[in-house]
Amino acid sequence: MANETAFPLYWPKTQKRTRPGDRSENAPFTVGEEYKHERQVRDTVTAEVKTQVVMRRRTRAVSISIAVDRLDDQLRRLDAQHAVLSTNLELRLNGQPRSGQREPEDPGAAVYFTLKGKRTVLACDKWARVADNVAALSAHIKAIRSVENYGCGEVEQAFEGYRAIEDYTAGIPWRRVLGYKDEERPDLNDVEKRFRMRARDVHPDMTGGAATQMAQLNVAMTEARKELGS
């Protein structure tokens, strides 16, 4: 949990990133507000023109403060503990993202929390605004919570695939993860070939402990590149 920083963004190692050019500006997350509108109405009997005030409703893009409030509400309903929202927005003194900032280059958002004793993470960078990605996390939790309404499963089962596995990826020498002896000195090309070979065997699309093993391989490959000079 030590790496789960609220600022800057700490993205889960096993989740793919959205390419910047593929992020959408047209997020569906809005808030509604009512406002008074005056209109001229002609009485059909007297032909007298009167001013009538009606209430109308308009929508606007969700703000970061509203998005965070929505996320906090869903986490509370989920009975999640020790939540950490991680983004590239600077924080206020209360630890929440400060409103009115310019959008960071990386607008991704990740929320880490404990559910029934298991550390879990959800992350989103599909949208071009941080607020929209935070709102997406809230909407996703709300959708998962709805599974209990159908009586076919429990929320904990639905969240099982989102467990945070960083704790299992650190501290193992990259040579051991990739199958080398501690004294071996392979070149980077050989390491990358072995990484690709092993990644095919433990890709997260497979069953069992493949996600954890894939995370270990990714961390090992990063460490290997650092040591071997790439």
| Strand coverage percent | 15-25%
Strand order in the sheet with the most strands = 3-4-5
> What oligomeric state do these chains adopt?
single chain
Which secondary-structure class do the elements indicate?
alpha+beta
Overall spatial form? elongated
Describe this structure in words.
- The protein has 230 residues and is an alpha+beta fold.
- The chain folds into 2 domains: 62-162, no CATH class; 169-228, Helix Hairpins, CATH 1.10.287.
- Helices cover 32% and strands 20% of the residues.
- It has helices spanning 64-78, 130-145, 155-159, 174-177, 188-201, 210-228; strands spanning 30-42, 49-61, 81-87, 109-115, 118-124.
- The strands form 2 sheets. Strands 3-4-5 form a 3-stranded antiparallel beta sheet, covered by helices on one side. Strands 1-2 form a two-stranded antiparallel sheet.
- Strand 1 and strand 2 form a beta hairpin.
- Helix 1 packs parallel to helix 2 (130-145) and helix 5 (188-201) runs antiparallel to helix 6.
- The model has no long low-confidence stretch (mean pLDDT 83).
Name some characteristics of this structure.
alpha+beta, Helix Hairpins, 2 domains, 6 helices, 5 strands
Question: How are the secondary structure elements laid out?
Answer:
Layout: E1 30-42, E2 49-61, H1 64-78, E3 81-87, E4 109-115, E5 118-124, H2 130-145, H3 155-159, H4 174-177, H5 188-201, H6 210-228
Antiparallel strand pairs: 1-2, 3-4, 4-5
Helix pairs in contact: 1-2, 5-6
Give a concise summary:
By secondary structure, this protein is of the alpha+beta class. The chain has two domains: 62-162, no CATH class; 169-228, Helix Hairpins, CATH 1.10.287.110.
